[in-house]
């Protein structure tokens, strides 16, 4: 197994096409196909499904490419430092469910370290993608929540992916809505009072299981339900349709503005927000600092 073979496999995986990857690599398609086949035979697994419609990664292939990317990136760092003699920026990436306070913690991290020596990336994405990003080394840290309903399913997935979940804070459930909503001035809201307003939920794509929902009470039969892909759309729907969503109650006005509020839901449900990391792999300095920034929001969790 050579570094060249790893680069070939990564290029094919990114292109989802042997012919397109061959063009990017400036080699013939037969040569590329032969190199990939030799690699598969050497490691004893099939990396790609091959059909008339093209190619796609197998489950084993996804895992292999995750490791291959790490090896290639580490080699590039070594080459830059010891051969090219250039200063390579250190990288930090985080994937998260849609939490504005987690974005704010990221902002504070960037302010502390600056971007002269560091390269940062943040991804707000679906629950399954958060897990996959950490498993495949795309992100060092993943931010999501567990509760009594999804705990067994997600913890099994964490274990199978060789990840560990570290709790940061426990939150009761709040209704997040705009301040002009008819229920916004109440001290507490009952679930049945929300029946006449659309519940807003983040779309989970192909993994739209109740267990991957970003909102608690995902099995409740809401009279009105709208799925959206991003926080900006959610905020617009709150104003335009008097929509609402379920949240931790941690308000981040510097990012979302002052037009929204959180009202306690009449429920005993609790959500535990924490971070995912690779099992038995210590966090980098940037990872540790980011977790420290997140931990500052423990006192912000409304009780």
Question: How is the topology of this model organized?
Answer:
Blueprint: H1 3-15, H2 18-25, H3 29-43, E1 48-51, E2 54-57, H4 59-82, E3 90-96, H5 100-113, E4 118-124, H6 127-135, E5 141-146, H7 151-160, E6 163-172, E7 174-178, E8 188-189, E9 199-202, E10 225-228, H8 231-241, E11 245-247, H9 253-256, E12 260-265, E13 270-278, H10 285-295
Parallel strand pairs: 3-4, 3-5, 8-12, 9-10
Antiparallel strand pairs: 1-2, 5-13, 6-13, 7-11, 7-12
Helix pairs in contact: 1-2, 1-4, 2-3, 5-10
Short description:
With 303 residues, the protein is an alpha/beta fold. The protein is 39% helix and 23% strand.
Give the count of helical stretches.
10
Most strands sheet: 5 strands, mixed
Beta-strand content: 15-25%
Roughly what is the average pLDDT, rounded to an integer?
Answer: 90
Any idea what the radius of gyration is?
Answer: 22 Å
Spatial strand sequence of the major β-sheet: 4-3-5-13-6
Tell me the structural class. Answer: alpha/beta
Q: What is the β-strand count?
A: 13
User: SSE string, helix = H, strand = E?
Assistant: HHHEEHEHEHEHEEEEEHEHEEH
- N-C termini distance: 55 Å
